Amino acid sequence: MENQNTSQEGVTKNRSLAIINWVVGALLALTGFVSLFSDFIPGLFLLLAALVILKPTRQFVMSKIRVPVSRPIKIGIMILFLVIAGATMDTKPRQDVSSNNSAGQAQKSENTQTAVTPIEQVAAKPKTLEERITNTIDTSLGSQTNTKKLRVVEVILDPYKPSMLTEYGYKGGESVTGVLIKINSDENLTTNLQKGTMHNEAAKIAQAIFPLNSTIGDIIIWSQLPVKDQYGNVKDGTAIVYSIARPLFTKINWSNFNHRDLPTLLKSESRIDDRNNYYEAINF
């Protein structure tokens, strides 16, 4: 009876070892197969270790080499394969990926800086006086007229010549500039309302432009409206010209000034300083 129990225990033990061998062998085989695509050498030795553990593959190999191998040697070979697999596993591939990612991020950052730098430089570039004048008029009157035309048509700077500096009481070599401004005016229903609109625009422009730069000596405003020529063609043309010099600008109390008085004032002041003037280029 005792021998029978011992025999049953041996059979159970062998079955348990066989199951363990299959589970471990299958896991090693699966791990080794997957590792072949990312880390070939460790994957290969894991497969070899699985080959030793799994009884069918082990018996197939042993039948081919026809050399008797004891159980301890089989276990030693399996352990050797596992040690080699573990020793050849390293983090080099992951480090390479990390390095590549870092390099890619650095390159991306460099490219971003390269792309952003010109934008920053453009943003930091000071605006020209012409651009500042245009922006100021757009802010004061609106960038478009009530008929959706572009407000500012043209801005031209006209530096004073030496003879002009002398004539208007400036020092020789002083920097003084005349500003020529062409705008499209808002349109109105009647002649009286139209002139009032244009006088108001000219007064607002003078109040906005002279404070921009102390070198501005005078401004000339060409105010445009749709004009019909003798052939019946309609196009934008100069309707009124306003000329205002800085000395007159500084004398006017703009908070109490009525823009409708601007033509009369400019005509009277032209006797003192011919840079001041008012001229209607069309018959209203």
Automatic annotation (TrEMBL):
Membrane-spanning residues: 20-53, 73-89
Region (Disordered): 93-121
Keywords: Membrane, Transmembrane, Transmembrane helix
Segments of skewed composition (Polar residues): 96-116
Superkingdom field: Bacteria
Key word Transmembrane present: yes
Protein name in the entry: Uncharacterized protein
Source species: Candidatus Zambryskibacteria bacterium CG10_big_fil_rev_8_21_14_0_10_42_12
Taxonomy of the source species: Bacteria, Candidatus Zambryskiibacteriota
